[in-house]
């Protein structure tokens, strides 16, 4: 269950909860854009319906770390066209609580994934990712954007 008892939504490919809303792009989606995958057309479609594509500092770091030399200029242009969501104390605490609570149930969550998810929840955004299984947080709405699909 999500916040307020609402069911958590993980959406199937091709189903969009983002029309006119905010969507935070996970690093898997950004990589797909940089490599010429299907996420390019989905990102364009977001803009056409008035959705606001977002990223946070964790995404920028993950992408910068793995950039090929010929991708640096394109990545810079991509980030220039996206809105940054700040990370602060509230996001750090939320991420830490998720990691603690899931660990108590035997589930290990990555710090970066929890911070990205916390950024999305803070601004009321859907999280678009190629790895929905990495984001089991009940407060988060996840939209699956499979790489290359």
Strand runs, count: 6
Number of domains: 1
Mean pLDDT: 87
* Tally of individual helices: 6
Q: Which outline best applies?
A: globular
What percentage of residues falls in helices of 4 or more residues? 40-55%
Written as H for each helix and E for each strand, in order along the chain, the element string is EEHHEHHEHHEE
Features:
149 residues, alpha/beta, Rossmann fold, six-stranded parallel beta sheet, 6 strands, globular, disordered N terminus
Q: What do these coordinates show?
A:
It contains 6 helices and 6 strands, in the order ββααβααβααββ. By secondary structure, the protein is of the alpha/beta class. Strands 1-6-5-2-3-4 form a 6-stranded parallel beta sheet. Helix 5 crosses helix 6. It is globular and about 40 Å long. It starts with 9 loop residues before the first strand and ends in a 5-residue tail after the last strand. Residues 1-15 have low confidence and may be disordered.
Any chance you could write out the topology, listing elements then pairs?
Layout: E1 10-11, E2 22-25, H1 27-34, H2 39-48, E3 52-56, H3 57-66, H4 72-80, E4 83-85, H5 89-104, H6 111-123, E5 126-129, E6 142-144
Parallel strand pairs: 1-6, 2-3, 2-5, 3-4, 5-6
Concise account of the structure shown:
This protein has 149 residues and is an alpha/beta fold. The protein has 6 helices and 6 strands; from the N terminus they run E-E-H-H-E-H-H-E-H-H-E-E. Helix 5 (89-104) crosses helix 6.
């Amino acid at each position: 269950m999500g916040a307020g008892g609402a069911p958590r939504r993980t959406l199937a490919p091709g189903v969009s909860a983002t029309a006119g809303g905010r969507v935070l792009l996970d690093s898997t989606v950004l990589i797909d854009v940089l490599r010429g995958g299907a996420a390019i057309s989905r990102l364009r479609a977001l803009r056409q319906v008035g959705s606001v594509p977002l990223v946070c500092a964790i995404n920028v770091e993950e992408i910068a770390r793995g950039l090929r030399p010929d991708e640096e200029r394109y990545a810079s242009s991509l980030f220039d066209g996206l809105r940054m969501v700040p990370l602060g104390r509230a996001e750090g605490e939320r991420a830490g609580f998720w990691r603690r609570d899931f660990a108590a149930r035997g589930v290990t969550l990555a710090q970066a994934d929890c911070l990205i998810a916390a950024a999305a929840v803070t601004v009321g955004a859907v999280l678009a990712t190629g790895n929905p299984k990495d984001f089991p947080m009940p407060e988060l709405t996840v939209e699956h954007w499979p790489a290359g699909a």
